[in-house]
């Protein structure tokens, strides 16, 4: 019996539709090669839809819930006031669907240039797990005397034991399937209340995982250690704001935002998980064919791993790595091929079964499946 999955597609804004089209072409190739099927529903969301209708996440929540997983492009447009789409759609989805763990691999692939002198792929292979629904991103805050010389702004950071515990436990399970080391990143010497709660939960949960070594690094020190000694880290767990910052630093180390990817995981199977490249909508290059689709295609690989299609997921990752390693540049007109051409190259390698698994021998995908139960609708 052929495995069949229900997939929601949100192309979004800017370069989102272009890179998602590449990911779907690769998905077609993977289905043909590995014998599974997807039923896809493309939903309108993002700046154009908001400007035309005023609709945000509420308009698509019900249809999204009906699917096993979500493939997301990008969202953002200078015509929309900053914060409207980010808070009204992206953060709203993460919170309502309880996508508690944002998982971002930081991996330097063979042949991909990095700005860090002397860094090799063997030294850079870690995963950052960011708490995804709490912290400073809950939206709690206020401003008084706005627009005057006496303006005062207050922004709260919310940390709950339940929210921390679920993402910490997930991180320990992830580490157990990898190199068995977990590092908590926080700022416990200044953010004492939140930091102590995070440290307490890590210490208590670690008792259930005696095989996993536990480490701690201040977030400012992390910004020093991550580019210089990334081999120190295996699985890093941190709060929402710190995670947002250090994962972008990680993306630079691994070659840029265009090759970085993420999974937003619902950890109990009550709602679909969402998979996205971490680059923005880049409206300045939309329609030029100069966007690198690798991040979106690697997001597809994570999605397939989450659904349990591990062989297809590894093939998609390996094919993407092979194409990336042969590019003269990772973005822009000097890539040597258009966005669509790169997508087609990767799809061809997958379809013909030529992906070299040796390029990703210790893939994250091998331990991702089963850690967060997929919400299969079939």
General description of the model:
With 378 residues, this protein is of the alpha/beta class. It contains twelve helices and twelve strands. A hairpin with a 7-residue loop joins strand 11 and strand 12. Keywords: Manganese, Metal-binding, NAD, Oxidoreductase. GO terms for molecular function: 3-isopropylmalate dehydrogenase activity. It is an enzyme of class 1 (oxidoreductase).
Features:
19% strand; 10-stranded mixed β-sheet; alpha/beta; globular; 378 residues
The biggest beta sheet reads:
10 strands, mixed
In the sheet with the most strands, the strands line up as: 2-1-3-12-11-4-5-10-8-9
Outline, from the CA principal axes?
Answer: globular
What is the radius of gyration computed over CA atoms, rounded to a whole number of angstroms? 20 Å
The helix count comes to 12
The level of helicity is 25-40%
Following the backbone from N to C, one meets helices and strands in this order, namely EHEHHEHEEEEHEHEHEHEEHHHH
Question: What does this entry show, briefly?
Answer:
This protein has 378 residues and is of the alpha/beta class.
């Amino acid at each position: 019996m052929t495995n069949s999955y229900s997939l929601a597609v949100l192309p979004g804004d800017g370069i989102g539709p272009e890179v998602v089209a590449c990911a779907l072409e690769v998905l077609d190739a993977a289905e043909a090669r590995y014998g599974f099927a997807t039923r896809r529903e493309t939903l309108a969301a993002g700046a154009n839809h908001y400007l035309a209708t005023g609709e945000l996440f509420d308009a698509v929540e019900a249809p999204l819930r009906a699917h096993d997983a979500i493939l997301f492009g990008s969202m953002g447009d200078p015509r929309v006031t900053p914060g409207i789409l980010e808070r009204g759609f992206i953060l709203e989805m993460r919170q309502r669907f309880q996508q508690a763990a944002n998982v971002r691999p930081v991996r330097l692939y063979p042949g991909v240039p990095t700005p860090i002198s002397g860094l090799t792929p063997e030294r850079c292979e870690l995963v950052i797990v960011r708490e995804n629904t709490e912290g400073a991103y809950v939206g709690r805050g206020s401003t008084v005397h706005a627009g005057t010389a006496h303006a005062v702004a207050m922004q709260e950071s919310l940390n709950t034991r339940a929210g921390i515990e679920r993402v910490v436990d997930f991180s320990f399970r992830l580490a157990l399937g990898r190199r068995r080391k977990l590092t908590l990143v926080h700022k416990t010497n200044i953010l004492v209340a939140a930091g102590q709660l995070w440290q307490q939960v890590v210490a208590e949960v670690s008792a259930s995982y005696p095989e996993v070594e536990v480490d701690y690094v201040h977030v400012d020190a992390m910004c020093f250690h991550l580019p210089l000694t990334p081999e120190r880290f295996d699985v890093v767990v941190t709060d929402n704001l710190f995670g947002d910052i250090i994962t972008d630093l990680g993306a630079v180390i691994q070659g840029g935002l265009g090759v970085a990817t993420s999974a937003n995981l619902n950890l109990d199977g009550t709602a679909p998980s969402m998979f996205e490249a971490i680059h923005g909508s880049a409206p300045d290059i939309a329609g030029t064919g100069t966007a690198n689709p690798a991040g979106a295609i690697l997001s597809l690989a994570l999605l397939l791993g989450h659904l349990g299609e591990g062989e297809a997921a590894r093939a998609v990752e390996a094919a993407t790595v092979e194409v990336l390693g042969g590019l003269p540049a990772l973005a822009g007109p000097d890539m040597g091929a258009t966005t669509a051409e790169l997508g087609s190259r990767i799809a061809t390698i997958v379809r013909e079964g030529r992906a070299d698994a040796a390029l990703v021998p210790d893939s994250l995908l091998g331990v991702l499946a089963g850690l967060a139960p997929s919400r299969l609708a079939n």
